[in-house]
Structures are given as C-alpha cells and as structure tokens.
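Write out the 3D structure for:
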Amino acid sequence: MQDPDERKIQYDRNTRVALMAAGLFFGMIGMAYASVPLYRIFCQRTGFNGTALRATRAPEHASDKFINVRFDSNSASELGWTFVPKQNVMRVQIGEQNIAYFEGRNNSDREEVASAVYNISPPSAGAFFNKIQCFCFTRQTLKAGESAEFPVTFFVDPDILKDADGKLIPEITLSYTFYPAAAATPQKQALAN
C-alpha cells in the first residue's frame, strides 16, 4: 500500500496529465474552427493558391512590359444566370490599373442573390494579381429577367518581373463562378474574400 504522500504525488501527476490532455483537446477543436478564417487571411496576405491580393490603388509607375489576362466565367446551374466576360483576353501593362467587365443576366422568374468565387491560374500568379474593386467582394442581386454589368478593377504587380517563376508566366487566367448565396459554403466564401 502506498503512503499518503506518494498517493498525493501520483494524484497531482495524473491531474496534470488530464488537464494537459483536455487543454490539447480543446485547443485542437478551437484550431479546427479557426482554420477557415486563418486560411483565408493567409491566402489574402500571400496570394497562396491563386488567391488575388486586395489593394487600394495601383503602383505610381507601371512597367514597360505587358502580360495577357484571360477571363473565364461560369454560373451554377441551380442559379439560372447567364454570366460572361465582355472581353476574353486583355493585354495589360504590368503595374497599370485596368478594368474588365462581365455581364450577368437572371434568366429565372424570381429574384436571385448570388456570390462570386474566383480563382487565378497559374496559382503562383495570385501573389501578383491585385484587385482594387470587384463585384466578388459583395453579394449580387438580380431581379427576374434583369441584366447587370459586373466590373473588376485590377493590376498585375511589377514584382512579378523580379520573381524567378513569375517572370516566366505568359498569361494569367481570372476565373469566376457565381453560386446562389445560400449555397455558398464557408470554403467557397473563404476563397471569395
């Protein structure tokens, strides 16, 4: 039989291990809930995984180099929208502010609210593609039969020319997909922001 001091020491050790295990358990649950917002912040700050960066304005000086920006658009079948770029490709001066337009039409017989998510290809270009203003920053509403123009103001950061991989990119593709706002999952929303 253990003496009371040894039992107290063993009890204290067991309590400490149990508290550490509980702390680890709850910490992991907290990290699971925080992972989507943390991933979104990480992608927005670094351009990781084709996430465009947000900027307030273009650089003061543009490069004398150009790059093609291709536009792609889709809409979820359950949305009932037609959504197309007004231009398929733009040849843009690196560092210069540009504006591209997309056109959407609600072909359904009811008002629809939608969110646009986007992707940039190749993913490494996301670190250099900056959006100043975009329809994808907010939800869009179209009444039955209504059409609207959706602009995106952007620039390609001149630092792309200093990056070993970036300077080899001949074309950047900006792709959007509209989903019904209720169907936009947290992951889709994380990518949209």
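The two ends are 64 Å apart (CA to CA).
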